[in-house]
Amino acid sequence: MGKKLLALTLALVVVLAGCVKTKTDVSKEAETDSKGNGPSEKVQIELLGTSSGEEDMNIVRDQLIKNGFDVKLNIQPDYGSFKAQRDAGNFDIALSSWTTVTGNPDYAVRSLFKSDGDNSNIQDDEVDKLIEKASTETPDEYKGTYKELEQHIVGEKAYIAPLYISYKAQGVNKDILNPDTVRLAKSRAIAWETIDFNDASKRTTDPLITQQAIGSLTSLDPIKGNDGSINTLNTNMYVRLVNLTDDDQVVSDGSLSYNYAIADGNSDYYFLLRDDINFAKVENGKAVDTGERVGAEDAVFSLNRAKDKDSVPDHRTYSLHESMDNVEIVTDLSVLENAKQSGGESSIREALEQGLEAKIGELVEDKTKADNSSGKYQVIKVTTKEPFPQVLNYLAHQSAGIVSKKQVESINTYDVASFNPDKDIAYGDQRTVTEGATYNNHLYASGPYILVTKNDYQAEFAKNPAYRVGSEFEPNIERVTVRFIEDSDSALSALRNGEIHLFNGVPETKYDLVENDEKLVLQKNDSNAVAYLLFNNDSDRAVAKSENLRKAVLYSINQEEFLNFYQGNKKKAYSTVSPLVDTGNELTADATKVKEWLTSYRAE
Hints:
Elements: E1 6-7, E2 14-16, E3 19-21, H1 23-29, E4 43-50, H2 54-66, E5 69-76, H3 79-87, E6 93-99, H4 105-113, H5 125-135, H6 139-156, E7 160-173, E8 208-212, H7 231-237, E9 243-244, E10 250-251, E11 257-262, E12 268-273, E13 278-283, E14 286-293, H8 296-307, H9 318-321, E15 324-330, H10 333-338, H11 348-352, E16 362-363, E17 376-384, H12 391-395, H13 405-411, E18 449-454, E19 458-463, E20 479-484, H14 488-496, E21 502-504, H15 511-515, E22 520-535, H16 542-545, H17 547-554, H18 559-565, E23 570-571, H19 591-603
Parallel strand pairs: 4-5, 4-6, 8-20, 16-17
Antiparallel strand pairs: 1-6, 2-3, 6-22, 7-21, 7-22, 7-23, 9-10, 11-12, 12-17, 13-14, 15-17, 18-19, 19-20
Helix pairs in contact: 4-5, 5-6, 17-19
């Protein structure tokens, strides 16, 4: 999943560890103190969420009421309404989730907690210092730093209250699809190009039919969105310099590069580009080869705009790429020969030439001059402001997708400072691919598929005819249909009825329905998805001003009850870092501490 905060849910029925109580029952339990005395003054907490996952909200509300709170529910029907309420500050705590789709811990904290983070409502110099310190350290070094960061964010300041880590699961119709071709990666969005039918003759006649919850697309410009509406779509539309394996290792497989190498000092990163990918566009409802190669000029352009917060209006992924200082094309072979690999004695040239059929004979600046078969290559060099090996994970993210310099510049002719979304059309605007009067598809896709058209119900994609033709990474299936099904029960029903072939996101409580269906198979993996309560830290509300009040909420949370309810299909969390770094931190519910913090809050 990827960078917007995603809401979990609210409900009107209280569920706790599989047992149901009414709100009145729970309230009565909280009316007397531990000594059996009469009613005590309750603190009201406004809880914001959506109506799509009521179980989590039921458990949270139950726990807060039992610990002396009066809970006011702010239930919104969908994510758009939830976001409007969140942006307006109409909450004390909001049920939220975050998935680290890059597989590195810096992504798990930078956007959410750094003062200038895209999704942060925290201003804390100590947090900023610890995030920057950890970003320059190796895994052996950063474990202690992330532990300290977690303790500050959760234990000391209570900026969030962690709930659990989810597993990642998807249901596959094994009667139609070959399950061995369907990937389920821990971090990255699902890759469509590997998926194949059991009956290969259907590749050109039938579409692969999958689904996602959100139908309103943030943007098809990869740097302008990082949320569930576009992460999977842009991942399959734009190739990147590197990719992640299913267990979060950075590789060149299925990317624009043959190989990559890190130079001594961990600030310079080199990428040897391939010459077998062209951009696709849409003509008369079909994907066609533009004849324009995806090359180094496009990569430099794409990464420079990714790291420039002013390159587009509403730049939503800038913080992922701000570590890059310079991006350039290397044309001097001696640079590759003189630079040494990090932690070794061999040269960068030797590292880039690994496995090549034709060794590097010449480096060219013009992408039309590249001819790999005769030893003519293009090389990109990325230099970071400080040593930062985690930059590779960000370069594997969909926001680092390679766009066409020529096409984007021809569309984005507006002035960024005075951009008017009602009048100006930006590259990737969903209106240009939506059926009707606004349709004017201007997309250029560098990846295996291109979006042809969409409506309120689904989006249609077509295979890029000039993507890795003849290789193992050439897409198998010609067309992909993505149905927009917000409700997970409806999506599961569609899978079981054969209306979709693949459902990514099977709820933990419905695993058995998939496992017991003879035509389906359940694929399950660890994930980097963490659910937590977000406090309203940038408002005039009491939770923004009082650590005592936030800590009282924090220590009301009993994660064991979530694990019991989900029948062991959740894991404990301490922060969004928990799935990536074992810091040893753990949250333990403590009613005594809750009373102490509430007493301190009332005395303020």
